[in-house]
Amino acid sequence: MAHVSVPLYWRTLPQRYRLVGQKCKKCGSVNFPPKGVCRYCSASSEFEEVQLSGRGKVHTFVLISAGGAPPEFAEQEKAGGQYPVAIVQLEEGPKVIGQIADVDPKEVKIDMPVTTELRKIYTEEDVIRYGFKFVPATEGR
Amino acid sequence: MRKVAIVGAGQSRYGEFPEKGIKELFFDAYKDMVASVDKGLDPRLIESAYIGNLGSGGFQLGNMSALVSEYVGLPHINTMRIENACASGGYALVAAVMDVLSGVHKVALAGGVEKMTDVSGTKQKYWLGVSGDTEYERLAGTTFSGLYALIARRHMHEFGTKREHLSMVAVKNHKNGAQNPKAQFQREITLEQALKGPIVAAPLNLFDCCSTTDGASAVLVCDADIARQFTDTPVYVAGFGTASDYLAIHDRASTVTLEGTRRASQQAYKMAGLTPNDIHVAEVHDCFTIAELLAYEDLGFCEKGKAGPFIEEGHTQIGGDRPVNPSGGLKSKGHPIGSTGTGQAYEMFNQLRGTVQKPPRQVKGAELGLIHNVGGSGGTVSVTIMRR
To answer: B125, B130, B331, B365: which is deepest, by most CB within 10 A?
Structure first.
């Protein structure tokens, strides 16, 4: 059974907890999630760490219903109904996928401004996994 | 330069077969392939077998190609499993073609097999939903329906593609599949039904999604110089191409283009000395309805963004100027992951030889056909062009 083990998850905690990206020392582009070689210039593997703001705009989104939810998210769908997942264009450049919380699914729109918060993502191997989710950007957050 | 011919092709029925495992399914396809070789086949001539497969039904994860090869009577050949998710079969065909082109072997088998219905729905989603990006896409709570829905929503936003355009793909492919005796779902659906399916991952509903399928297929390729010892009507491999892409959609420059399809098809057109307009019939990878619309654009059948009007105008119907998925496609014929690519080759072999089982499905006079197989949401893509 394919799954994301705790050690595999741990290796991505800097991204999931603190949005740590890589700024390419050659072309200056920001990679997030990290790559071995810069995804933009394909010419450098020298990076400096940067912390992303978490702010961005919805590029596209889907509302996941029961038939589309992976087993580890089925409970969330059962309890709360369909949930939105978006690809968000971050203000530093890269796009990244994540759920949108604290929103009526009917209110989600392309180009809607969002920001990130640390939330519970799911539970596997009896370990609660935390990571970023998007929430609508409002005054003060 | 050496040329490659296809001289036989077979397919099991696609569907749900509790009595059959991967060995039995593959044997069904193999026997059907042997029966299709007009002048007969001495199995001792087969030197190589490339078998597309993703999960062996969670049963024989290692050395499965040796197992299915020996079961059909080929115990001591060059055999290997090819795994590129849903494009495994298409890549198995390309591997067999490259083998023969290299001159190492003269006769090679390309096949595929998948046993999907032995595993529970929950396990299937673990087993199948992991050919996209696992760390981010999966952990955002998506499976493939969700990923293709992200593409569909953006396509609608950028180009004005309508919900009805998606459903038109399902209606067309079910209409074709209703004439295919080997298809999983041999029934037509109405546009109204297709529009009102239960929501899976909005904007996609159940009728936008292909199913869970058992099935196998097998294609015999050989050096064109010896093709006539097998048949007087071989089909030739005119060109092929393969290309990969960023696994996660969020890493791609464009959300609404499968760059793998664009690049793989351009390689194939160039090798064949053809343009998209030369293709008479195509089998494309319609795992979700939006995927067929993307294929129209990325294979060059219409301009980027115009796939909605392209299907609406009827170009891709049988009888239109560029029929697509006369077999019923993944949508109606079924999608036994590892078998899908070589199953497309089976359909095209018959289309180009004028030997499809039920005449309404035959594209009349087709001489040039293209098959297109996509792994995951576009992480891998293969395209092969065949000529009568």
So the answer is: B331
